[in-house]
Amino acid sequence: MGEKGVYLSDWSCFVISVDTGEVLDYHVLSKECRKCTMKRSQCQTDEEFEAWQIEHLASNECDINFNGSSPAMEAEGAIVVWSRSVELHKIRYKWMVSDGDSKAFNTVENIYGDDCKVEKLDCVGHVQKRMGKHLLNLKARTKGKLADGKPIGGRGRLTESRIKRLQKYYGLAIRQNTLTKANLTEREVDVVVYTMKKNIIAILHHSVQSQDAAKQHRFCPVGEDSWCKWQQDCATGTNTYEAGDCLPEVFFELLKPTFITLSETKLLQRCVRGATQNRNECINGLVWARCPKHKHHGAKVIRCAVASTVCHFHSGAASRARIMQRLVIPAGEYTQKASEEKDKRRLRKSDLQTSAKEKKRRQGEQMRRTRREDALREADGDTYEPGGF
Fold this sequence. Notes:
Blueprint: E1 10-16, E2 23-30, H1 34-42, H2 46-58, H3 73-83, H4 85-89, E3 95-98, H5 104-108, E4 119-122, H6 124-141, H7 160-175, H8 186-207, H9 213-216, H10 229-236, H11 251-261, H12 265-269, H13 278-290, H14 299-315, H15 319-326, H16 333-353, H17 356-380
Parallel strand pairs: 3-4
Antiparallel strand pairs: 1-2
Helix pairs in contact: 6-7, 7-8, 7-17, 8-11, 13-14
């Protein structure tokens, strides 16, 4: 549990159903034991500590259940929860929604044997961010001037707001063509992937100027409901499209390799189901609220925090009353009312945040902030670059 790049002594692993959103299983790994640490500092010799450790391990009170490196904890956690799925629930976990940051999928791909291989799905949110990352890296790598004698950045060029817009379009090209059926045929997957590819290529052509408008927008969706203003104008007879909002022609060949890379068949096949790791991010946030990452917590505290998180994730604050009842600590009237009110506020906030109007407002505000920052950077010029001054 923590950020990558730092030493981790504890790690919590959850299995969350893509269909129901419920936590099916969880496991906490720990590389440290408070009792062992304290006893080692008290013992005068290694022999004395080893003798005590034998008794300590025999009593099953040691918190250490993992001895590998910190980066390997995620993969080990996946092995533990996948290997006991049949015993716990009489089911096999067929898919793993992954962000590609660890070897967790590789360790469980064949855990059920050849007759039931685990399939990897990519989080469409993480895949969408790859477009922004690729374009930012491209902008950082491209020094000097392009073929038209101008730099890659600046007004009307590849600014951060433009990159965010392309990233958003790329995400929509994937999200708007997903299927949620349990068993997809190979034909259905091929059709969806083809449509995704066509829409991704449409973004490139739509965003770069061309002398022939019909050729520029030939891949864009047609009709009055199209996101392409040019196609809307063709269908409705209006004149709302502004050609000056496109990138210069020199950017077509510059951006083409990035769009080809991010429209590879295997990548898009893993996005067909439109799976995300939003629930995973949510439950991690609940754990961190109970055990902040900037403070050290023992394994027992983390296990309690994880168990409490699962209860809250399933039933909200009202789950505390049932826990207190199991502990023979009956919850009072005020405790129950406070829990119910807290859940109501959470649901109201959730409904507001997921509404189309609120999403549009947040996206608009984010784009305005990015444009303001682009304008300020252009006015100030280059003021910071690692090792550049």
